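## Example pair
The file below holds two records. Each record gives the amino-acid sequence first, followed by its structure token line.
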Amino acid sequence: MKRDVPGIAFVFIDPDGETSVEKSNLLQALSSGEKKALYILNIIFEVQARKEEKQETLFIVDDIADSFDYKNKYAIIQYLKEISEESIFYQIILTHNFDFFRTVESRKVVDYPNCLFSYKTENEVKLEKASGIKNPFINDWKQNLGDLKKLVASIPFVRNIIEYTKGEDDADYKKLTSLLHWKDDSESFSMESLKIIFENSLADVNFPTVHHTDKIIDKIFQEAESCLTASEGINFENKIVLSIAIRLKAERFMVNKINDPLFVLSITSNQTIELLKKYKDKNPSEKENLKILEEVNLMTPENIHLNSFMYEPILDMSDRHLRDLYKKVKNLS
């Protein structure tokens, strides 16, 4: 384990026997994950050599676990943990994968104060301290429902809780669905109704004092408008509010244009997709509107149907993209 690069022989084995394989030929046949595994072997050798020579080193690790299954991802994270425990080693770990990011923090490879999110504004790339790693609904939104953005953003989470505990046939589940898809009762849903559902579904919930006859749909669009002028940042709740408002406005537009109540009532799942298919059939020449509606279908489903275990799609999408799409949907004609 000095400075010489290790010599590695490659042998292919199958039931008929075995044969040596040249490295250049092997690399052409390996998958991206297998190539990355081979690359990591070389890294492990280099790390061990530097450890034995007590060579102070900064490692920059960039999405090292992509293309691996979870077992191997966890093995890599454990190895990064071992590196972090060496006083002569330092690490900057970069990733687009939020699950990897969250696991690196939970296993104390990196302490929470040293976890950062990056985001791009119109003029620069910024870093800010990470928030929401450990479930923003429990650790933030539930205690701050007086912030109407957080209240609106909590609707999908509460709907998930009802789905898991009572099932999709539950009346409250269906009511909350009317706030995520345009239904015949979407406009009549009051704050009082939402308060009852939240208090029936959550322990120790502090629902805000509001005019209980106010319509939730108005609050959703009101908060979406305020998202357009909010400061740029990670903005978990802003992205979810915008996504909900985008879908509701797009579906309301399609429902009105299709003008077929029986068809709309017959939709039991994938409502945005089904409405878009029907809209295309009836309005094939409206190319610009169809382009915008396709964008809605592409960008919003994962953002709305999120739960406490997976928020990567919402994190990976630019706040600016959602603002721009909301403006386009408002101007559909």
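Second record, same layout:
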Amino acid sequence: MVFLEGICGFFSHDLGIDLGTCNTLVYKRGEGIVLDEPSVVAISKKDRRVLLNGQAVGDRAKKMVGRTPGNFLAIRPMKDGVIADFEMTEAMLTYFVGKVHNFSNIARPRVVIAVPSGITEVEKRAVKESAVKAKARRVWVISEPMAASIGIGLPIDEPIGNMIVDIGGGTTEVAVISMMGMVYSRSIRTAGDELDEAIINYLRRQYNFIVGETTAERIKLAIGSAYPLEEEISIEVMGRDQVKGLPRSITIRSEEIREALKEPLDQILGAIIETLENTPPELAGDIYANGISLAGGGALLRGIDRLILKETRGIPVHVAEEPLKAVVRGTGKFIEGIDEFGQYLDSGDEDG
């Protein structure tokens, strides 16, 4: 068994994985980020068979969302940052791990996976088991705020307060980190998905106009904002009339989308304020001096840094460079220095 594990390790490269609600990113030791694809799987409705032969996982599967014929279904096996469908998550991970290893049956990498800080032990165990069944020979988990902080280069090994806000697809992670430990953290299931849902609900309520999640995300990226813009913008959108049931188009203004996003953004702000209120005074002083770092896809929403600056009474806010890649870069740094950082990881006992 030891000999076999050694052979499997020789033919593999350790991986860092950001298993996100919207996207999965993979970092390969010695190579960097080698995969960035949507966390979507296409299946047959009849027998729930994953359409792997057609490579209906990731990019190809996302194009099917809302467009599949009656006998197929495109699903997202992750919800709110955790596994909603164990079988489909396993199939998705198996495909992604195989893809970065050129579908080798021998390679069995060690894996570090980032997970929300607020998940339960049962949910954490499900993540580890999925990775093991996807051919990982050993699995560790790291909290997403810790990974994001490492990924953007915060000095979290020093005795100073570092505050990270990671707004992903399924969860928003807010944490204060010092000396490689989380002093206080909040994980809320309000993030990018809820922003999209808020847009869908607003259009239905205001215009009797129905759009899907893909269109809602496009609207958010095109004209969404958290703070008034210097020059407001608009976009024309195609959808369906809720009353007549027929296709039609409407023009939507950025001010309207800002109004639609207010409630979920208020929840994110509430988590930030609560975290600041529960931070020890000495570390809070560091945060007031050095600022708050933003990561995750939500960090790209126009004006969200200005909104947080205003609501925290002037604490500087810094948007990370390539915020969507912050978490996976953090898992990658752990993988590259696994012997040094291993003591800070939640190790799995699975050996596959």
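Notes on the second record: The longest strand covers residues 181-188. The two ends are 11 Å apart (CA to CA).
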